[in-house]
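Priority: medium. Attachment 1 of 2:
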């Protein structure tokens, strides 16, 4: 009889959710801390968040580093690392979406490391310590604000690598949904789809009788479907509140406790971003439906359960459920292939296959199946 695996669970991140919570950072960061304020390309200067933060930090010692790009690059982070080390900074305040937060997590583990810190990302050496990280979230998508995961890109080797450690879970995260008002539609759709796929990766395998995890996963998925159906209300407070919390819960760790998981969509997606610099969520929408079709037999029971409990579909096949997921992505203008994204590359399959051996093997997919998936991900080039 299938059953849940054993698990340990510890969530050290203090979450402050709602408007006007940003000023709290003054009390949350120790007075003697030497802070690096880390942010991206400047959206926080346009939407007033930077001004609020500098106001809140007026009695703290802090320096800043800006320019963390989407899919944060090792070279950029190494420049920030110099500032941290040269000025003995000891607290990272990451203000942004997943890219800035993940960049902050990298700085946290690299600050006191004496070797090549890329080894820590690849897991060649264990992560022994990390500086504390605090987060002001500006984009709801990754769940990075309260999880122990980070993803860093290295352009010279075309790598996008993920690392995990309980030591990089942020100490606190401010989740103020009003900050989402300045997000472009593309980022809102990306965030919704990233969260949707996060739940799927932890839910769409085979049943193990996990009543709580399944029920909660379905609640998060239903919320995301509702937010997609009501996308025209995206500037309403309640819409943003729900997306921010759904995305957080999708990858805070709770729905994945003790259940089998399959992160193959993300494994392929990271390669697509490394090769073509595509937004993370868009790599997922162009991969997941094809991957599900290839694993439809192994995942049939959970697909039907998802169809019933999330989309209200009965008397349908697992393939119909996959088509319904695909429709969700289309409704949000997400691509279903590289061609949809405007990338016409006849060599795409070979390039992706050449990179895959470095990733963990994909669950229930043999080489022929992988090629079928990738041909569909590439799309019809001519
Ligand atoms: O850089 P700025 O100017 O701030 O602009 C950003 C960026 O261009 C903009 N933005 C963010 N908040 C905004 C805003 N624009 C207007 N108003 C706001 N309030 O949005 C753009 C994208 O930001 P980014 O941080 O890259 O997006 P996201 O949160 O989707 O993060 C993607 C990164 O997270 C990784 C992805 O691989 C990718 O590198 N992931 C991290 C995970 C984790 N740590 O658990 C899991 C995920 O599966 C994912 O892999
Ligand atoms: Zn993701």
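Attachment 2 of 2:
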């Amino acid at each position: 009889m299938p059953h849940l695996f054993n698990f340990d669970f510890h969530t050290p991140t203090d979450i402050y959710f709602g408007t006007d919570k940003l000023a709290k950072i003054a009390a949350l960061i120790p007075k003697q801390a030497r802070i690096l304020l880390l942010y991206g390309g400047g959206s926080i200067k346009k939407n007033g968040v930077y001004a609020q933060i500098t106001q809140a930090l007026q009695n703290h010692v802090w320096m800043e580093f800006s320019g963390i790009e989407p899919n944060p690059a090792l070279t950029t982070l190494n420049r920030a690392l110099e500032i941290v080390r040269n000025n003995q900074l000891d607290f990272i305040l990451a203000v942004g979406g997943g890219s800035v937060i993940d960049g902050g997590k990298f700085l946290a583990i690299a600050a006191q490391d004496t070797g090549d810190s890329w080894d820590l990302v690849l897991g060649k050496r264990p992560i022994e310590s990390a500086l504390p990280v605090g987060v002001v979230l500006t984009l709801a998508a990754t769940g990075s604000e309260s999880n122990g995961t980070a993803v860093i890109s290295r352009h010279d080797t075309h790598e996008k690598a993920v690392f995990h450690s309980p030591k990089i879970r942020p100490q606190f995260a401010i989740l103020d949904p009003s900050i989402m008002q300045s997000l472009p539609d593309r980022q809102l759709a990306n965030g919704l789809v990233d969260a949707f796929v996060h739940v799927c990766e932890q839910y769409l395998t085979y049943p193990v009788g996990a009543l709580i995890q399944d029920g909660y996963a379905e609640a998060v998925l239903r919320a995301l479907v509702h937010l997609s159906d009501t996308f025209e209300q995206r500037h309403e407070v309640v819409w943003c509140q729900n997306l921010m919390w759904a995305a957080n819960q999708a990858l805070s760790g709770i729905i994945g406790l003790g259940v089998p998981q399959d992160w193959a969509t993300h494994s392929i997606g990271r390669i697509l971003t490394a090769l073509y610099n595509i937004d993370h969520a868009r790599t997922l929408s162009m991969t997941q439906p094809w991957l599900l079709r290839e694993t439809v037999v192994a995942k049939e029971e959970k697909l039907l359960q998802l169809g019933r409990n999330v989309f209200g579909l009965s008397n349908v096949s697992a393939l119909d459920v996959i088509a319904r997921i695909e429709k969700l992505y289309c409704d949000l203008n997400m691509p279903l292939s590289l061609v949809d994204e405007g990338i016409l590359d006849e060599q795409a399959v070979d390039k992706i296959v050449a990179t895959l051996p470095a990733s963990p093997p994909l669950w229930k997919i043999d080489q022929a199946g992988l090629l079928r998936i990738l041909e569909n991900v590439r799309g019809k080039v001519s």
